[in-house]
């Protein structure tokens, strides 16, 4: 598998590794609904959903006008930034993860806003299907999507 | 990814390709509970779960003493066999898929026995986590499970 990652994808890789150590599974570039794509969607052992947006620079963060739309699709929301990032810029009431391409650490958890049961069910179904579809593409290069 | 498959795994590959054409996602060697491993677990667009056991020979089928334990973990149950298999051997009230390494066809659907809502929820959570974990292992070879 090619490993030429963009800066944001490098952060995502480190984030996903750290999440795995917390027993969260995760997929990158997950689409909770059409037109909305989150950098990392993580699913915890008890069914918790966390969204992590990875920002490689101040400019990358400041040009994101969509992030508040993500809040209704998770129990907790985090930013992942590198150790040079001025974390004071990040909104209160959000979580913060300091990451690099290899690992990450949660430095602020932020509040929990629990998903409703029907939305959680919908999300779980989409998450399961997107994860299985990607794994199928990886294990069977002969697969043709109709 | 290595493609040296055993006969049963070849059937599973063909089965998963056909399921994809029906908008079912699937994972192989799925564990619904400790000690129970099914050849293919498929998840449909409406949340349906199908189990498909792949039998490469008469002997392979007749030595399976566990298959009835799988019934309570799916809405529909199928056998996948190759075109030489004497399908008369297969129990009534089960579905049949004729498969090879490249493709498959459902020739008997068998009855539907709907999962209870709590069990469906548990299964969906396990399916999501197993699929995401395998996809994570594939996309990040540097991942170390703790």
Commentary on this structure:
The first copy, chain A, is globular, with a radius of gyration of 15 Å. The longest helix of chain A is centred in the C-terminal third of the chain and has 23 residues. Chain A is an alpha/beta fold and 146 residues long. The model of chain A has no long low-confidence stretch (mean pLDDT 94). A six-stranded mixed beta sheet of chain A has the order 1-2-3-4-5-6. Chain A is built from three helices and six strands. Chain A has one domain. Chains A and B meet through helix 1, strand 1 and helix 3 of A and helix 1, strand 1 and helix 3 of B. Chains A, B: This is MmcB family DNA repair protein. Chains A, B: It comes from Parasulfitobacter algicola. Chains A, B: InterPro entries: MmcB-like, Restrct_endonuc-II-like, tRNA_endonuc-like_dom_sf.
**SSE ordering of chain A:** HEEEHEEEH
**How many helical stretches of chain A?**
3
Helix percent band of chain A: 25-40%
Contiguous uncertain segments of 5+ residues of chain A: none
What is the quaternary state of this protein? homodimer
Largest interface: A-B, 35 and 35 residues
Rough shape of chain A? globular
Mean pLDDT of chain A, rounded to whole units?
94
C-alpha Rg of chain A, in Å?
15 Å
Q: Main sheet of chain A?
A: 6 strands, mixed
- Structural class, judged by helices and strands of chain A? alpha/beta
C-alpha end-to-end distance of chain A:
24 Å
What's the number of structural domains of chain A? 1
- Please give the number of β-strands of chain A: 6
Proportion of residues in extended strands of chain A: 25-35%
Report strand order across the widest sheet of chain A: 1-2-3-4-5-6
Organism (chains A, B): Parasulfitobacter algicola
Protein name (chains A, B): MmcB family DNA repair protein
Pfam family, one (chains A, B): MmcB-like
InterPro entries (chains A, B): MmcB-like (IPR009394), Restrct_endonuc-II-like (IPR011335), tRNA_endonuc-like_dom_sf (IPR011856)
